Amino acid sequence: MLDTDTLGARTRADEPEDREPDEVFIAPENPYIARSSQYVLKSGDTFVVNDPLGDIIGHDDGLFVNDTRTLSQLRLTFGGRAPSLLSGNVSNDNAAFTAHLTNHPLPPVGGEGTPQGVIHVERMRVLSGTVLYEAITLTNYGSNDAVVPLSISFACDFKDMFEVRGLSRPKRGMLEPPTVGKCDVQLRYTGLDRIQRDVRIAFAPEPDHLDSGRADYSIELSAQACVSIYLSVAVEARALALAAGDVEAPGAQVAQPPHSTHPAHITQVDTVRPRVGRAAVRTALASAHLAMRERRRVTARIRTSNPLFNAWLERSFADLGLLTTDLSTGPYPYAGIPWFSTPFGRDAVVTSLQTLWLQPWLARGVLRFLADHQAREDSAFRDASAGKIMHEMRKSEMAGTGEVPFALYYGGVDTTPLFIVLAGAYFTRTGDEALISELWPALERAAQWVAGVCDKNPHGFVDYQCASERGLANQGWKDSHDSVFHADGRMPDGPIALVEVQAYASAAFDAMAHFAARRGLADDAARYAARSQSLRERVEDLFWMPDLDFYGIALDGHGDLCRVLASNAGHLLAFGLPSRERGEAVARKLESTLFHTGWGVRTLGANQPRFNPMSYHNGSVWPHDTALCARGLARYGDKEAAVALLQALFEAAVNFDMRLPELFCGFMRQRGEPPTAYPVACLPQAWAAGSPFMILEACLGIKIDAAREEVLIEQPALPEGIDWLEVRNLRIGAKTVSIVFSRVGGKVVASADNRDVRVATVL
């Protein structure tokens, strides 16, 4: 075996000595060129990230399967040079990537050379399962025949996602020598988790020369003719049996979730070799389009008078469809690509809340998955305790061996109450009593965990303190190491009680009180209601800063308030915790230039210690955070401010090619300048894609009660530039309704097409 970092990607010096040098196969130029844009495709637990040319160069891009980068290089060159880019785009439904390229001047090979811009190259790429398919079509638009020296370079480094993100490892698994056939190359890596990962790269037609890192073709292309080359990259994985005398890796048991029958850190893949060629590409493409179309079919549609606004919403729907993965428990939105293409608890709950009014089926899948993976025992390594809802699941080698605790990790303080909140909202939206009955044991365990944490805190709050040195130090949604601090910049001692988590917990107890009352558990209902009210009162007593008309971000382990103005307080409004007067005071701050950049709400006030508009959590703009703040503003009567935030995010999205990233920098908006991108933000990100729908729901004032077959619309408002908006096929129980919002006499009015569904408007 070869104990090296990379298979493939050979250089000119690696060629066999008996091969005659020629001018056809020229070594590629330096691949390490900075790229400004990345494009992604996803299928299940597989995703690919490439540049506009369609190339993978091995920085933070590649073909990833189960949180492992399998393909780390895939480059197309002509005469040793990268082609010129004409355009690179993903289809509107995120099913396929297509690059249009053309040639630089090609060297003469047995005749005249080929001038620049004569050969058109189309690279079309699609994912199906764990197989990447690509068709490369060359068309000669010149008047003379051409000989095109084409090379496809490839390599596999089998790096764990955490290695790609920069984490070093003292030891890695073993790479086997590559197997090279006439039309394919097989590369194999056996990880420390005893998972054997195979990659088979196949070509059609047969290359003129193929070795462990490159396929070379010399294509004779007649004038006005075209020819296609096809390739596939198939990834297979299988668990190896524990050999006699082998010792289980420390922490490896964390890869076993409740009720699992095989290691959770790997998805078993069939070993059937995929076909290579036109038919295979067409089949994969049709399947990808069909899957995306089916997700849209069962979702309510939104159409407006503004084509650009429509394009933003359609891109957002498409991104949610791309990130949604069909699991055994139902559909589940993975958090984001490239770093978080895996189940996260908090992200999925928030995304489901954002889109609940349009597609409640997503919340159903999320609730079932989270209930199925609820902690049943305590584990300091995983930050787990009985009843807690998972924060993150990983399937990579390092997770499987216990090198990192994230195979099934519970270090999120807010996911458990939010799980209950989502269940309550889902029931109101759908009236699905059967699912709540199915989830009831999990809901009770979750509520008991929240109550138990409150009982241990001297002030009765939900708090956290990391139990493992390898876990997350901060366990709210702002989980970077420096996101919670005192007004003098000091880091607080734990346990830490975040202000927004108390609002989630209060809403969770309210939901449990409602559920208990419906189930005839009067004493439990009263107890949950009392807990909710007590939390509200203690937040008002201990978090409110009357001199600043705002709530502090957190209470530290000594009971001292972190007197910091952060967007966390906006979440209190979103879940209705503050009194009316205090909520309106917070709203005024959030609307001011202290927070509002013109593109969205900053995570931290501009006059606060540690403020940095280029930081991850201390001054940047997160679209989902802005959406929650907008929901809060609307809830406390400021629809105009909520509409302004919707307008701001829309205008930001226009500058980000209609796709909101995970976050962007929090600089103030300047005339003629676009928002400033955050360099390593995930794109797409689920709760960023869901943000417009949460704000739109708040602006339209839509409240759906499935049990009553009723839609209540309170003081609807539309952004500037939109004269009408139609919501079609909105499911209310077994019925559907379409609602049109129109501007009439300076107001926005609603009309419905189904009299069987009661639609009441309060202007």
Write the layout of secondary structure elements.
Layout: E1 7-8, E2 39-43, E3 46-50, E4 62-65, E5 68-71, E6 73-78, E7 84-90, E8 96-102, E9 119-128, E10 131-140, E11 146-156, E12 159-160, H1 161-164, E13 174-175, E14 179-180, E15 184-190, E16 195-204, E17 209-210, E18 214-221, E19 226-239, H2 278-297, E20 301-304, H3 307-323, E21 324-327, E22 330-333, H4 345-355, H5 360-372, E23 392-393, H6 397-401, E24 408-409, H7 415-430, H8 433-456, E25 497-498, H9 499-518, H10 522-542, E26 544-545, E27 550-551, E28 554-555, E29 561-562, H11 568-574, H12 580-591, H13 623-635, H14 639-655, H15 686-689, H16 691-700, E30 702-705, E31 710-714, E32 724-732, E33 735-744, E34 747-752, E35 758-762
Parallel strand pairs: 31-35
Antiparallel strand pairs: 1-11, 2-3, 3-4, 4-5, 5-12, 6-11, 7-8, 8-9, 9-10, 10-19, 11-18, 13-15, 14-15, 15-16, 16-19, 17-18, 20-32, 21-22, 23-24, 25-28, 26-27, 28-29, 30-31, 32-33, 33-34
Helix pairs in contact: 4-5, 4-7, 4-16, 5-7, 5-8, 7-8, 7-9, 8-9, 9-10, 9-11, 11-12, 11-13, 13-14, 13-16, 14-16
InterPro entries: 6-hairpin_glycosidase_sf (IPR008928), 6hp_glycosidase-like_sf (IPR012341), GDE_N_bis (IPR032856), MGH1-like_GH (IPR054491)
Domain Mannosylglycerate hydrolase MGH1-like glycoside hydrolase: 347-653
Organism: Trinickia symbiotica
